[in-house]
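Hi R.,

Here's the chain you asked about this morning:
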Amino acid sequence: MGHRISEAMVLKAGSELDRGVAPSTAAVQAQLKSSEVLHLDESGLRVLGKLHWLHVASTNRLTDYGVHAKRGREAINALGIVEDFSGRAVHDHWTPYFHYECDHALCNAHHLRELRYIETQYGQPWSDQMAQLLRRIKQAVDETKETTDHLSASQLEAFEQEYDALLVEGFSDNPDPDPPPAGSPKKRGRLKRPPPLNLLIRLRDFKPQVLAFMYDFRVPFDNNQAERDVRMVKVQQKVSGCFRTLEGAQRFGRIRGYISTARKNAKNVFDAIQDAFDGKPFIPSIEVL
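And the predicted structure, written out as tokens:
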């Protein structure tokens, strides 16, 4: 009729769709809690002109988004997935995740970027060699997957020895900073360490989590799944700007998670939306391993 759709109609449709996808959202969250491997990530989101956080929990079949004013444990608990998860969580070493008793795996794409930075900015050969080692382990895993589900004991031992030797070389190039001279004013907290030493400590102290993909072929090399799932929402914000209400942002997250899950399961998005309005939302089947 030549009239623009009113804002009230758009809000009403969004509210109805949010209610329609609720059974699917609950089913997806339940399946995520029982999955063997769970990808986690978080990214800043503007709501009411203030920084909030978009949290994603996902697999290659499932996506759940939550929006919260906080980034840490309070938000993670409120979203209600990680607290009840007992599989292996893949993430980028965000410290609050380690408060949960599940197993952990660290994103090696992040490590490769940090190792490249150290090689470029500090010119330390061990960093490039460590990056090459991680890539060689990934290649060995990818090739071995075609015939079996584990590396041989000799391969594991050789890779571990090379990993440990590179850490020794790295620490020799990056000793702990000297303590302040006697009589100088005391400063709170620990001594500031340079980036190479911080990364070396992480690679040493979290070796099982860094190399989890080598020991368990179900674990991916990186956390690209969660990062891809975050990217689309970030694109939406660049186009539309900040959300006007927290309720609207949370509603958007639930609907977007429903759409993402439908796409991952090769479900036509328009059909999935229509099904939700009709009271028959798409619910992914439980994966049988």
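The CA atoms of residues 21 and 276 lie 6 Å apart.

Let me know if you need anything else.
M.
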